[in-house]
């Protein structure tokens, strides 16, 4: 049987011209039992299209781990480290990830109480809510009428010690049905987006870069982001912006001296733009909540040595959190405009495989008590660091 692909079903809110390459539903293969040649094709499709959807899939945690591992065969550790999220209670991720005991690379996530699930006698799952994270909240009245927010835009990555996973597999096992919700940005733009209940929202990091004006493209191609040590503990006391895209600067982050032991050598510094290994495209990939400093390289000299325009022409090392966050926000906010978001409408047995170094995603929505939501998530701390822009990319965009 040959592999067949069809474009994602886009909602009316989406600008289809920006989704020509993004997202393919894949038919004709069992992602839990891929032959080597099939996997090679799937791997190419993933890096080309950023996200692949398989429907009506039966997938054990072992098969999910095997599938994700095929993209980076020497990896064995979950993206945040095996059995770490459950034990690190100070981490902002702690309430949301429950490790499957026999396959610690796969996490149980969702909402509601689950009994006797893959070796877990009972788990109280919590769908991440903006109420516990954003500085401002949607009123209870609005929430009851179906208004919600993006929880937190991110890539799946520990951002400390462990390189960011290449691929994440999200598998929907139990998916409560319900009315659509309105995801409000509440950032003064009036932007909002109709979303399926409990959607996972995706945006393309390539589009995020492609649509920037020249001066921000120049900044992006010359910049590297330094992440805080133990960023998910560091950020835990802080509050997020209403769009879920980064943090407000209120001085609430955990002081570095109060963090668990950390080592300078394990701090992560990544380029703002990550080069796609198959297409060579540049994807703007920054976890805005964990970022704490920016290094900007100087503009390349023109042939006659005269200075060029652009931001920070002589380069800079920016350490003021507010400045760093504002610049990152300026680079990322255009890319989460409603017309650029793909909000996936989950069905039971959907398997979404996404290029974690090429897209950003967010949990969205608010559930009323009822049927539990049960998902399995798997990603692996990578064997290498993401590749930044090439010299040619820098000369082209700087
Ligand atoms: Fe995630």
UniProtKB/TrEMBL annotation:
Q: Which residues form the TauD/TfdA-like domain?
A: 22-378
Does Metal-binding appear among the keywords? yes
InterPro entries membership: TauD-like_sf, TauD/TfdA-like, TfdA_dioxygenase
Cofactor(s) this protein cannot do without: Fe(2+)
Kindly give the Pfam families that the UniProt entry links to this protein.
TauD
Instruction: Please give the Gene Ontology molecular function terms for this protein.
Output: dioxygenase activity; metal ion binding
| Classification via Gene3D superfamilies | Clavaminate synthase-like (3.60.130.10)
The molecule here is called TauD/TfdA-like domain-containing protein
């Amino acid at each position: 049987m040959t592999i067949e692909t069809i474009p994602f079903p886009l909602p009316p809110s989406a600008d289809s011209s920006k989704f020509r390459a993004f997202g393919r539903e894949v038919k004709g293969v069992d992602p839990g039992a891929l032959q080597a040649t099939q996997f090679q094709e799937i791997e190419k499709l993933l890096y080309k299209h950023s996200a692949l959807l398989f429907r009506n899939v039966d997938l054990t945690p072992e098969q999910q781990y095997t599938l994700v591992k095929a993209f980076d065969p020497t990896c064995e550790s979950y993206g945040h480290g095996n059995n770490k999220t459950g034990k690190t209670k100070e981490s902002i991720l702690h309430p949301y990830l429950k490790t499957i005991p026999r396959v610690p690379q796969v996490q149980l996530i969702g909402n509601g109480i689950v009994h006797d699930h893959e070796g877990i006698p009972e788990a109280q799952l919590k769908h991440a809510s903006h109420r516990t994270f954003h500085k401002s909240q949607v009123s209870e009245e609005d929430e009851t009428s179906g208004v919600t927010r993006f929880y937190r835009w991110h890539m799946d990555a520990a951002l400390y010690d462990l390189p960011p996973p290449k691929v994440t597999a999200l598998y929907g096992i139990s998916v409560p049905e319900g009315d659509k919700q309105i995801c409000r940005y509440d950032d003064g733009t009036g932007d909002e987006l109709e979303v399926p209940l409990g959607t996972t929202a995706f945006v393309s990091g390539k589009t995020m870069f492609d649509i920037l004006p020249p001066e921000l493209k120049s900044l992006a191609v010359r910049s590297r982001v330094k992440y805080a040590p133990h960023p998910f503990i560091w950020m835990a006391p802080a509050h997020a912006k209403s769009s879920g895209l980064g943090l407000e600067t209120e001085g609430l982050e955990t002081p570095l001296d109060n963090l668990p032991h950390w080592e300078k050598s394990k701090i992560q510094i990544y380029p703002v733009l990550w080069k796609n290994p198959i297409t060579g495209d540049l994807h703007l990939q920054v976890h805005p909540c964990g970022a704490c400093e920016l290094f900007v390289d100087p503009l390349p000299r023109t042939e006659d040595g005269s200075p060029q325009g652009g931001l920070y022409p002589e380069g800079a090392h920016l350490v003021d959190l507010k400045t760093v966050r504002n610049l990152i926000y300026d680079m990322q906010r255009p890319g989460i405009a409603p017309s650029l978001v793909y909000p996936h409408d989950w069905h039971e047995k959907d398997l979404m495989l996404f290029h974690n170094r090429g897209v950003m995603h967010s949990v969205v929505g608010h559930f009323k008590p009822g049927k539990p939501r049960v998902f399995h998530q798997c990603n692996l701390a990578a064997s290498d660091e993401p590749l930044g822009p090439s010299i040619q990319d820098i000369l082209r965009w700087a």
